[in-house]
Amino acid sequence: MDSMLLQQLPQFVVSGITNGSVYALIALGFCLVQNATGIVNFAQGDFVMLGGLVAVTLLKTWGLPMPLAFVSAMAFTALVGVALEGGPLRRARNREVLVLVMITVGASISLRGAGMLAWGKNVHTLPAMGGDTPFIVLSAAVLPQTLWVIGISLSVLVFLFLFYRHTLVGKAMRAVADNPYGAALVGISVRKLVALAFAMAGAVGALAGVLITPLTSMSYSTGLMLGLKGFAGAILGGYGSTLGAVVGGYLLGLLESLGAGFVSSAYKDAFAFLILLGILFVRPAGLFGSKRVRRL
Amino acid sequence: MLKLVNISAHYGAVPVLRRVTLHVDEGERVCLLGANGAGKSTLLKVLSGMHRPSAGEVLFRGTAIQGKSPEEIVRKGLAQVPEARQLFPNLTVRENLELGGYIHGRRKLRETMDEMMELFPVLRDRQTQKAGTLSGGEQQMLSIARALMTRPKLLVLDEPSLGLAPLIVEEIYATLEELNRQGTTILLVEQNALGALDVCHRGYVMETGRIVLSGTARELAEHDEVQRAYLGRDYRHKWER
């Protein structure tokens, strides 16, 4: 029994890393918005759902080629993100963070409702990239899609890292997170950058949806759970830290997959939240909790 | 260069500025003196576009800028070194400077950056350090340098001497004089009247939201009220003289 489980270990790791890549992307979406505005965007999970389902429609109903369908799905969701920021969030009379967070909860519920009307209650799926024939690595069966998921998310992460560190706009986004007042005083348009952050969060969320739909399928309500997992990943890594979000996402995927494999897959979803509770009790700042430099 | 005409401002129903009128001509160094709560910082928020005045006009190089966004105002050439410096503490010194040049884009960056490092050599040594780890004086210099990166016509400074050692304050004032000689007009807002009147040509004194006095630096320095309120001479000194 034990040796059989051990033999399956590589399989658990592969599926953990795959899910982890997706959680990392979702966590990154939370992080982007958090850093630009200081609010938790609970509609992030629904961006994932939108990305997946819009891609399904574009591919199957409109017959667009796969890459075009995926990029369009990301662009559409980015627009939804911008609309969420430019509409309800910016026009809110009460600027308190808690109120704005509640607005994102409302947006999440509305998006889910709209998703149900547009795509019904059925589960949809996308064809896997690179076919359905798995190949074997260390006794684990790996689908080509898995490699795509890992590869694409890693490249997005690297791209974002370079964007933040080496472009003026990326630096301006960090500056807005660090000190919005100071940023406005040197002529950085905080508004535009916040809109950009929402667009990027939408695109990254949609990408996560596009990547995970072939593996686990997508329905109007799947985004809720995925969003919460990404949120847990972001907190695990230290909320607001970009590196933390990535590491937290991967770690969560791995722990979840190992927990499901070695303990019971019935509790798969519970692991994410047990880990979340654990980290909040033991180390509320998360693994990479940002020790912000501040001196008066 | 800058002209404020009858500016009034409120926080909710509380009046903070009452019909403030002042002007700064091109090439001048002007100071605005006032104690805590006189309304200096609010006046600066009006200038930077952070607070909309309830009445009056702000003319900068001939155009009205009241109610314009901070971004537009910076682009017109009015930069501020704000109270408490407002740096980006988690970004490096170099990044702070780069963001000062944000409105001009990447191309012009290098040249202006070199000028700044020339002006404040400490910043060159500390380029890769996070801004939050600098000493108070260094932070103040970085804040000035960051504002200069926008290539302003008029530089407005909010209490740059606050909390700094006298020697550093002197250094900073000397830099301001130098900048002014190179063509930047300066509006210096201070509680430190002695120092400010020393570097400026003219000045205004503000009390409870009003301009109560104005004149050349010498006139103000010799004025009884200024001596009493800002230079620490009591009425008694005056009577006994």
UniProtKB/TrEMBL annotation, chain A:
GO terms for biological process: amino acid transport. It is found in: Cell membrane. Keywords: Amino-acid transport, Cell membrane, Membrane, Transmembrane, Transmembrane helix, Transport. The keyword Metal-binding does not apply. GO terms for cellular component: plasma membrane. It is a multi-pass membrane protein. GO terms for molecular function: transmembrane transporter activity. InterPro entries: ABC_transp_permease, BCAA_transport_permease. The chain crosses the membrane at residues 12-33, 45-62, 68-85, 97-115, 135-164, 193-212, 270-289. It holds the Pfam family BPD_transp_2. PANTHER family: ABC TRANSPORTER PERMEASE PROTEIN (PTHR11795:SF450), BRANCHED-CHAIN AMINO ACID TRANSPORT SYSTEM PERMEASE PROTEIN LIVH (PTHR11795). Belongs to the binding-protein-dependent transport system permease family. LivHM subfamily. This is Amino acid/amide ABC transporter membrane protein 1, HAAT family. It comes from Desulfacinum infernum DSM 9756.
UniProtKB/TrEMBL annotation, chain B:
Residues 2-233 form the ABC transporter domain. One of its GO terms (molecular function) is branched-chain amino acid transmembrane transporter activity. GO terms for biological process: L-amino acid transport. PROSITE patterns: ABC_TRANSPORTER_1, ABC_TRANSPORTER_2. InterPro entries: AAA+_ATPase, ABC_transporter-like_ATP-bd, ABC_transporter-like_CS, BCAA_Transport_ATP-bd_LivF, P-loop_NTPase. Keywords: Amino-acid transport, ATP-binding, Nucleotide-binding, Transport. SUPFAM superfamilies: P-loop containing nucleoside triphosphate hydrolases (SSF52540). SMART domains: AAA. Belongs to the ABC transporter superfamily. This is Amino acid/amide ABC transporter ATP-binding protein 2, HAAT family.
